[in-house]
Amino acid sequence: MLRRNSWFETVAEAQRRAKKHLPSSVYDALIAGSERGHTLDENTGAFAELGFAPRVVGHHAERDLSTTVMGVETALPVLISPTGVQAVHPDGEVAVARAAANRGVIMGLSSFASKSVEEVSDSNPNTFFQLYWSGTREAMVQRMDRARAVGAKGLIVTLDWSFSHGRDWGSPAIPEKVDLKAMVQFAPNVVTRPSWLWKFAKSGRIPDLTAPNLKPSDGGPAPTFFGAYGEWMQTTPPTWDDVKWLRKVWGGPFMLKGVSRVDDAKRAVDAGVTALSVSNHGGNNLDTTPAAIRMLPSIAEAVGDEVEVLLDGGIRRGGDVAKALALGARAVLIGRAYLWGLAANGQAGVENVLDILRGGLDSAVLGLGRSSVHDLSPDDLVIPPGFTRSLGAGTGVA
Q: Which among 122, 165, 243, 305 has most CB atoms closer than 10 A?
């Protein structure tokens, strides 16, 4: 019997393999959106409503897919979006960082990650550190100082997260920490996925559910994921003055993630951000928020000449990247796609996903008769009437 090829051709195949490889509780945590999951499905479905308008002659033999984001070069307009504790593989964020470095792509590291900013920055010098408004100002300054000390090239501040977490299909069970009690409780779920368990056993590690980047400066232990989540829940939400304060304290390239309204985008410009990402937190925030790609055009039109506009949410193909760029994004961030690759085949799986996106984007740029990703425009798309949503600009539909 021939051994199954570890290489896969689509992100959908990476997802299928991740589902077969991971315990159901771990896999469910990756795919879960809030409430009914309407926004989760909308993020991907909206891309399918957009068509391409290809050219038959005038194609370019050489195409440039590179760009810069907040002054940092990237071989592909695709960034690794910061995601929390990555218990899908023993190497977690370090494997992702190495894969991104090998493909010339920027790494985004969550403050809730299972690997430290020191380890990740050592694996990929082009790392952006992500920060939540969580804890005291003193604690946030300490976290920014720590990221700056290891050479983080930019800060991503994520504010598009609320308490909307109920799921109609049930929330996955996740332990506070992996101790003997948790091992016994989750054994029936885990033993059905021996290859996942074997990877951790072979590495000499157990799934790490702590957040080392939130370790206090006094040398105390790093909080668990739920401890970090609890700190965030108990922190008074930020004001625009707080955003300005963060921007000033960081002092370098600064991205605000989670913008869905035109008026918020304009306030972000006033706060001095370098970039913003149009996002609904991958469908994990307020369900029935429009798909990110629907909100992109109005925001790009309003502030695209003043700051860099990115998008995250629903990217599964290189063609999706091309559509986002054509509608005004400078680049996109991916989350679930690379996590499925990591689960399916570790570092090589993440590289595989990035190669898939590169190939699809290159095909789109070729077929549209463009020589560079910077040349993509709405003229390259078939945009159905009523596709876009202009929130916070006096109307909900454009």
A: 243
Residue pair 379/387 in contact (Cβ under 8 Å)? The answer is no
* Distance of alpha carbon 358 from alpha carbon 346, whole angstroms: 19
- What is the helix, strand, coil percentage profile of the chain, to 5? 45, 15, 40
End-to-end CA distance of the chain: 56
Q: What pairs with residue 382 in β-bridges?
A: 51
Give the residue carrying structure tokens 């913008």: 259
CB 192 within 8 A of CB 198: no
CA distance linking residue 154 with residue 324, whole number of Å:
22
Report d(CA 295, CA 34) in Å as an integer.
Answer: 19
pLDDT in tens, 202-215: 777 767 678 999 99
Q: How far, in Å, CA of 127 to CA of 79, rounded? A: 10
Q: Which of 21, 59, 281, 374 does the annotation list as catalytic? A: 281
The pLDDT assigned to 235 comes to: 93
> How far is residue 311's CA from residue 258's CA, in Å, rounded to a whole number?
9
Kindly tell me if the per-residue pLDDT of 99 is higher than 80. Answer: yes
Question: Residue 296: left if φ>0, alpha if ψ -120 to 50, beta else—which one?
Answer: alpha
For the segment 140-160, what is each residue's pLDDT rounded down to a tens digit? 999 999 999 999 999 999 998
Cβ neighbour number for residue 163 with a 10 Å cutoff: 9
Of 384 and 177, which is predicted with more confidence?
A: 384
3-state DSSP call for residue 120? Answer: helix
Active site residue 281: yes
How many other C-beta atoms can be found within 10 angstroms of the C-beta atom of residue 311? Answer: 29
Q: How far is CA 395 from the centre of its chain?
A: 28
Q: 279: closest CA among 236, 235, 334? A: 334
Q: Are 164 and 285 in contact (CB under 8 A)?
A: yes
Distances (CA, A) of 398 to 45, 232, 327, 388: 19, 35, 14, 6
- How far is Cα 198 from Cα 192, in angstroms, rounded to an integer? 12
Q: Does this model's pTM top 0.85? A: yes
CA atoms of 386 and 279, how far apart (whole Å) = 19
pLDDT at 398: 47
Distance CA 254, CA 372 (A): 26
SS3 312: strand
